[in-house]
Automatic annotation (TrEMBL):
CDD domains: Cas6_I-like. The lineage of its organism: Bacteria, Pseudomonadati, Bacteroidota, Chitinophagia, Chitinophagales. It comes from Polluticaenibacter yanchengensis. Belongs to the CRISPR-associated protein Cas6/Cse3/CasE family. InterPro entries: Cas_Cas6_C, CRISPR-assoc_prot_Cas6, CRISPR-assoc_prot_Cas6_N_sf. Keywords: Antiviral defense, RNA-binding. Signal peptide: none annotated. The keyword Kinase does not apply. It comes from the Bacteria. This is CRISPR-associated endoribonuclease Cas6. The gene is cas6. Pfam families: Cas6_I-A, Cas_Cas6_C. PANTHER family: CRISPR-ASSOCIATED ENDORIBONUCLEASE CAS6 1 (PTHR36984). Gene3D superfamilies: 3.30.70.1890, 3.30.70.1900. Residues 139-258 form the CRISPR associated protein Cas6 C-terminal domain.
């Protein structure tokens, strides 16, 4: 389930950190955390047994800006971004109610801009409506950097580029972890999941993002844009991937995908 969110500010000084992902993620997390109790009640009363309220990701922000050092100077008083959650369809009104008119601060130790959620609009399901158990193949591209990595002996990630054979293996491993969270380990292990990187018009482009900038926990991560991903799996698992993001650091706004084609595969496709 994904939404367009339009933010408005009355601030005349509209400089935000170029690494805005962590403060925006924190603002989203704060808003949805206020709905935890109501969400638990919803699950109990409707019989939905799946987790997912905290499985979310978001796109890069969309508005005119110019770069000034480590700041983005916004040239208008509104900005747009998309956010997605892995939630039942019946939660649409609930999510809209949580966000509408909420305050969103994008700030660090050097600057702060306060926004109000001016509007929130539900977007169509990228996969349409059909049997959740059918196998589908989709072509996607990221609208925020995809971060793929393998943990080294120190517990830190060694980040991978799209031309590394381990890139898609890492993404599939993370995908299985999300399936395990929403379903169970056995379902995740038995799921047929495939990914293939393909080139777009422009070369692969990397971006270095700083999380928790200026804090003792500061972390630098490397993500990739200008690539396509062909993804194969059961519709319910592909929908989870689109809703929750691909790769690591999804809740920090990484791995937000848009789909531009979707094909239903023959029912004879089985796990190999």
């Amino acid at each position: 389930m994904r939404f367009n969110i339009l933010l408005h500010t009355n601030f005349s000084d509209r400089r935000i950190p170029i690494n805005y992902q962590y403060p925006l993620s924190s603002a989203i997390y704060r808003i949805i955390s206020k709905g935890d109790g109501e969400y638990a009640k919803f699950l109990h009363e409707t019989g939905y047994g799946k987790k997912g309220f905290k499985l979310f990701t978001f796109s890069q922000i969309n508005c005119p800006f110019k770069i000034s050092g480590d700041r983005m100077e916004l040239l208008t008083n509104e900005l747009l971004f998309q956010v997605s959650f892995h939630l039942p369809e019946a939660m649409e009104t609930f999510i809209k109610g949580l966000f509408l008119s909420e305050k969103v601060d994008i700030a660090d130790s050097r600057s702060k801009v306060s926004f109000t959620v001016k509007s929130i609009e539900r977007l169509p399901n990228l996969l349409g409506d059909s049997n959740e158990g059918e196998m589908i193949n989709i072509s996607t591209r990221p609208t925020s950097p995809i971060v793929a990595g393998v943990q080294n002996e120190k517990g830190y990630y060694d980040f991978l580029s799209p031309d590394n054979r381990l890139f898609t293996e890492s993404l599939i491993h993370n995908w299985r972890s999300k399936i395990s969270t929403c379903y169970d380990d056995a379902t995740a292990e038995s799921a047929l999941l495939m990914m293939e990187v393909f080139s777009m018009k422009n070369p692969f482009k990397s971006r270095l993002i700083t999380i928790k900038s200026g804090k003792p926990e500061e972390t630098k991560i490397r993500g990739w844009l200008n690539l396509g991903l062909k993804i194969t799996g059961e519709r319910r698992f592909v929908e989870l991937l689109l809703n929750a993001g691909t790769g690591v650091y999804s809740s920090q706004g990484m791995g937000f995908l848009e789909s531009f084609s979707c094909d239903i595969l023959p029912s004879t496709v089985t796990r190999t």
